[in-house]
Design goal:
By secondary structure, the chain is α+β, with helices and mostly antiparallel strands. It has 8 helices and 32 strands. The strands form 8 sheets. Strands 10, 11, 12, 13 and 17 form a 5-stranded antiparallel sheet that branches. The chain has a 4-stranded antiparallel sheet with strand order 1-32-31-30.
Length: about 550
């Protein structure tokens, strides 16, 4: 009995320590949830419930607000947050979110503004800007960062056709010299273009633990190379790096020239290639993921190939080779989001432009299930987060964000198949920016207003009149294009065809301009456990805060 009791006590202590650790890890990774959990008083005051109870209650409460329901609506804020600051000639073009940091990418507001980009890093605890990297000639489209090791990596597009792209590496938090290193992706091939960046912290390669590893697929000439680069903060000096020939530049800084770029003296970053896989396909832009066991990419086949289906390429990290190439989507479908889900069996989840969400078993290499979802509008409108162990998807359509979980059974029974459509409806939560659209359209009109003293013209009216006139011209030209009877008439017809195409192009441009004037669409979606952040094409950031959800009937009363 004593032995049983002590074993029981030991397991109780172990369980308590496990949940305490889980709670502390959660608050460390998601500090914005700190006000929900008081870690100091937890020991005495938590009583019978313990850390497990606190953890479960928090997950339950957040899930209640996220789930589709008629009772609560999230608090919606627009543009009055600390991370919305920008100059009058800049517009926010992209954003990234982690527990501690909010990163915005700023670009030119109009086409006549200077085409330079800058990165701003904000601390979510202090709500202060802690770093700014400005005057980037290239839009940092692929951006990855490690808060723990204070590293931020972005792809820099090389303008010279025969030169490969470069990875620029900075510190995430501000220092006297924030730029750490430019790493040329030289060994990726002639003029290789980087297609994605995924960074993972504290990951094992074999038995070696790496601080952070960047997965960097590059492609050129109908084939691709996936490289895994381990980054480590180190101090470069002649003692630590005696092999290099140290030189001095014009500013007096000492550096070593390596074939993948210059390494300057000081506390910089070392890049070590820890793995490389050659893939006999072009890989798709912007979609890749990896864990210490698997990595996934999607192929993109050019028109010339007989089999133009989109394939899921599964890499086995243990022996750095391709494990499976499976058909994932029909030809010419862009994959807008993909994630490796940590569970048994190991699965990858992907969503394509055609609005099919698919789940693949990585070990056996087969598609487990697929499901129709609202079509996402663009790659940036798809974000995938791990929500207390379930994979939670956010898909942005024009003015709605659809939220749903990976909650259907992986091996469904016939009954479950019949039931799935019904059950799916409960899980989809739509957060809409409709209410804000009209204010934004008015603001857009305000931005386009003429200077004081100049007679105001309705730009939409003008566009519509131009469009009507062009349509008439188009019809007139079309009526005159008749098959030439005589050889000398061929020139006349050719000239008319040229005019016809030019007018059609102009009509298309005007249509685009009209849409841009009046529409507000979602540009990017980011999320954490209690917020969804939405960037619209007008450069506004909307924040949906689920922690501050309010009952719907109250809000109706206020209106």
């Amino acid at each position: 009995t004593l032995e049983k009791t002590s074993r029981h006590m030991y397991s109780l202590i172990q369980t308590h320590q496990y949940w305490r650790r889980a709670l502390k890890k959660l608050v460390l990774k998601h500090p914005y949830l700190g006000h929900k959990i008081d870690t100091e008083t937890e020991e005495e005051d938590l009583g019978k419930e313990g850390c497990k109870g606190v953890y479960k209650n928090l997950a339950k409460e957040l899930n209640l607000f996220w789930k589709k329901n008629e009772k609560f609506k999230p608090l919606t804020l627009r543009n009055d947050q600390y991370f919305c600051e920008k100059d009058e000639r800049q517009k926010i073009v992209s954003m990234k979110v982690t527990g501690n940091y909010f990163i915005t990418v700023l670009g030119p507001r109009t086409r006549s503004d200077l085409a330079v980009y800058s990165l701003r890093v904000f601390d979510r605890n202090t709500k202060k800007k802690i770093n700014e990297i400005s005057n980037l000639i290239d839009k940092p489209e692929y951006l990855a960062f490690s808060p723990k090791y204070n590293i931020m990596v972005a792809k820099s597009h090389e303008t010279c056709l025969s030169m490969p792209d470069t990875l620029n590496i900075w510190t995430l938090e501000s220092q006297s010299d924030s730029f750490l290193r430019a790493y040329h992706l030289k060994s990726s091939g002639n003029g290789a273009r980087c297609t994605a960046l995924v960074l993972k912290e504290d990951i094992f390669f074999g038995s070696l633990r790496k601080d952070c590893v960047v997965m960097c697929p590059t492609r050129y000439n109908n084939k691709s190379v996936v490289r895994f680069l381990a980054l480590a903060r180190v101090n470069f000096c002649p003692d630590s790096f005696p092999a290099g020939a140290w030189k001095t530049d014009n500013a007096g800084d000492r550096f070593v020239k390596t074939n993948s770029g210059l390494i300057y003296e000081g506390h910089k970053v070392a890049v070590e290639e820890v793995g490389r896989v050659h893939i006999p396909h072009l890989v798709q832009l912007g979609v890749a993921d990896f864990t210490d066991k698997w990595a996934i990419l999607f192929s993109e086949a050019p028109k010339e190939l007989p089999d133009r289906n989109i394939h899921l390429i599964v890499l086995d990290m243990a022996n750095m080779s391709i494990r499976h190439i499976l058909k994932a989507y029909e030809p010419r479908i862009a994959v807008y989001g993909a994630s490796l889900h940590q569970q048994e069996p190991d699965v990858a989840v992907a969503v394509g432009k055609d609005g099919y969400l698919k789940v693949f078993d990585l070990d056996s290499g087969r598609e487990l299930t697929n499901q129709r979802v609202p079509k996402p509008m663009a790659r940036t409108n798809t974000t995938i987060i791990d929500f207390f162990g379930t994979t939670r998807f956010m898909l942005g359509s024009i003015t709605d964000i659809h939220v749903f979980d990976l909650q259907f059974p992986l091996y469904p029974s016939p009954e479950a198949k019949l039931d799935r459509i019904e059950r799916r409806r409960e899980h989809i939560r739509t957060v809409s920016i409709y209410g804000e659209v009209w204010d934004m359209v008015e603001e857009r009109a305000l931005q386009l207003a003429p200077p004081p003293g100049v007679h105001a013209l309705d730009p939409l009216m003008q566009l519509q009149q131009n469009l009507a006139a062009l349509n008439q011209v188009n019809q007139a030209i079309e009526a005159n294009i008749v098959r030439p009877e005589l050889p000398e008439e061929a020139d006349r017809v050719e000239q008319l065809m040229v005019e016809f195409r030019a007018v059609q192009q102009r009509i298309h441009d005007l249509n685009q301009e009209m849409e841009a004037r009046i529409s507000v669409a979602i540009e990017a979606v980011a999320a954490d456990l209690s917020h969804i952040f939405v960037l619209t094409n007008t450069g506004d950031i909307m924040t949906f805060d689920f922690c501050e959800s309010s009952p719907i009937d109250e809000s109706i009363g206020e209106d």
